[in-house]
Design a protein that fits this description.
Layout (H helix, E strand, L loop, with lengths): L1 E9 L2 E7 L4 E5 L6 H10 L17 E8 L6 H6 L7 E8 L5 E5 L2 E3 L1 H8 L3 E5 L9 H11 L3 H47 L6 H13 L1 H17 L4 H16 L6 H27 L4 H21 L4 H67 L6 E8 L11 E8 L7 E2 H4 L2 H18 L4 E5 L7 H14 L4 E5 L3 H4 L4 E9 L4 E7 L2 H13 L5 H10 L3
Parallel strand pairs: 3-13, 3-14, 8-12, 12-13
Antiparallel strand pairs: 1-2, 1-4, 4-5, 5-6, 6-7, 9-10, 10-11, 14-15
Helix pairs in contact: 4-11, 5-11, 6-10, 7-9, 8-9, 10-11, 11-13, 13-14, 16-17
Protein name: DNA repair protein RecN
GO cellular component, one term: bacterial nucleoid
Pfam families: SMC_N
Length: about 550
Amino acid sequence: MLSRLSIKNYALIDALDIHFDSGLNILTGETGAGKSIIMGGLSLILGQRVESRYFFNQDKKCIIEGHFDVSGYQLAPFFSEQDLDYEQETILRREISADGKSRAFVNDTPVTLGVLKALAEKLIDIHSQHATLQLSTEAFQLLTLDSVAQNHTLRGQYSATYQAYRAIQGRLDQLREEAQQARSEADYHQFLYDELAKANLHADEQGRLETEQQQLTHAEEIKRNLFGVVYALQEQEMNAIALLKEAVQQLQQAERYMAALAPQTERLQSSFIELKDLADEISRTEQGIVLDEARLVEVNERLSLLYMLQQKHRVDSVAGLIALREELGGRLEALSSDEAEINRLEMEASQLKTETFELAAQLSEQRRLAIPLVQDEVSRILHEVGMPHSRLQIVLSPLDTGQVRSSGQDKVAFLFTANKGQEPQPIGKVASGGELSRLMLAIKSLIAKTSSLPTIIFDEIDTGISGEVALKVGDIMERLADHMQVIAITHLPQIASKGKAHFRVYKKESADRTSTGIVQLEPQERVLEIAQMLSGAKPGEAALQHAAELLGN
């Protein structure tokens, strides 16, 4: 439950610190006093986004803090999932700076607004006069049936299974589409792959072939040039080797008389030997060169194939062709792998679909069983609050065959009539504001009995009611407070008199500023407050007596 609410520097509020009772808490005050501002501040720690930066003091930040007693509501797993410290008195805090930046905390641990909102939804349900619009929404109507049917665990199981089924189905549809596209291209890719595989490509062959082509094309010229070298070195009459040999001999003769010539003799002798070896090697090379027209044709054809493939696939090397071949092979292999994955996902999707429909059927059955209870209990409460001829008819029907959605396989319609002899119609078409308020109160009170929600807030849902009906509405709120904390903002003295704790919201004015204040009323102050609600600012003795009677004094 909400044990304490602290608001600092928000709208007309400088600083408020409210300590709530565990039962029925009443907030009253003149229109414009600031009751809605207090609710606006509370909504900020419930995860609502900041719509404006309207601060009491623009130079300070706004701080909203709520203290909640969460013991007995099995919330420890939520705290563990979110990596938060679990405290029986949990503090939700929101800080908004003047530049609009906002921070949220749970027990002094920074959290996202999503986490703050998720926790707040487990702590408080705010029902305002505008929330009656929810009555005509299918989501709220299904929520009502599920709450009364105690479908929380079943609904959670269904939701998890449904989401898993949708995720698998989405992945399956994507794979099927990709596989279909791949299959449409598979024949072409297979042709390209086979062409490249047949070419038996090697990364370094193009360079070798181009070198060989150069030699085969110019073999005759190369042979002629090499022969000329051999002829000059050792074949012609005055060849280089014969002359060098004669020079060696002459130097050796001179060395006999001049020992200092020995190094030059040795060097010249080495040159002679090296030149002779070189001439022999060139001769062997010349003799080995043969003009092979067949091999030249073979090399030219191979190079033409490589050039053609490179041009066709817009690459500039054999390595690029090999990379493309591997890519095409991977695509063809992936197609086979995708087929296996599709088969696996189809089996998994089929299993999840079966589980989803089984859980949806269980939900439907539980909802059908809850319908009479909802109809009877709502009619009983509405009879109690002055609507004896009202009737709620709930129509639960299946979706089209084979269809499910996040809420199950059902569609629901709440049909209502407040008048005798009138057939029930969709709620939004037949109910007035006051009737909607009482209908919502009846449904909320029914839900409260079957939920573990700690706190419910009724924000001026007394629109369109008065007198004895208002007294009955107050009785219902009072009984509701036996199961949970109730905070009610009201303008009706009949409802205000039922509170266990009564707070008055008021405006106070200083020389240059108007601000909102709140005070918890003592018993005698409550008599005066309710008397003023009955008859105005200066109540007479009758109004005071009536107020005392309402309070049971």
